[in-house]
Amino acid sequence: MVTHGGANGVNEALSHGKPMLVVPLTHEQELQAHFVEKAEAGKKLSLNSLTSQNSRDEISELLNSDLYRKKVSYLQQSYSKLNGPASIAEKLIEVALSREPVGIS
């Protein structure tokens, strides 16, 4: 997956076991790209250095590397076991229902 590194895209790629080429555009996306690389679930390419050739090279490496394939498979299994998105949604609902409503002034 080629992504800007937003939380939704990163979560989708991981839950589907797809390695990522992250080209961050804003601050939090830089952080996501850092963690994607650290987890060996993908690679970061800066927007300033982006070319069609280095994009092809990086994507080719991601698709043909056993390392990335194994890492994203492991992460996908982890997401499946924890039922990540559903668990997060349930926790958010739990927190929302346990709080007093806040009035809008």
Uncertain ranges? none
Count of spatially separate domains: 1
Order of strands across the main sheet: 1-2-3
**Into which percent range does the helicity of residues fall?**
55-70%
CATH-level-4 superfamily name = Glycogen Phosphorylase B
Sum up the overall morphology in one term. flat
Decide which structural class fits the backbone: mainly alpha
Distance between the termini: 43 Å
Count every helix, treating DSSP H or I runs of 4 or more residues as helices.
Answer: 5
- The overall average pLDDT, rounded, is 88
CATH architectural label? 3-Layer(aba) Sandwich
Biggest beta-sheet profile: 3 strands, parallel
Q: Count of DSSP E strands? A: 3
Radius of gyration: 17 Å
Q: Could you please say which CATH topology applies here?
A: Rossmann fold
Strand fraction: 5-15%
Give the ordered list of helices and strands.
EHEHEHHH
CATH class: Alpha Beta
Notes on the protein architecture:
This protein has one domain (2-98): Rossmann fold. 63% of the residues lie in helices and 8% in strands. The protein has helices spanning 7-15, 27-38, 52-64, 66-82, 84-98; strands at 2-3, 20-22, 42-44. It has a three-stranded parallel beta sheet, with helices on both faces. 22% of the residues are buried. The mean pLDDT is 88.
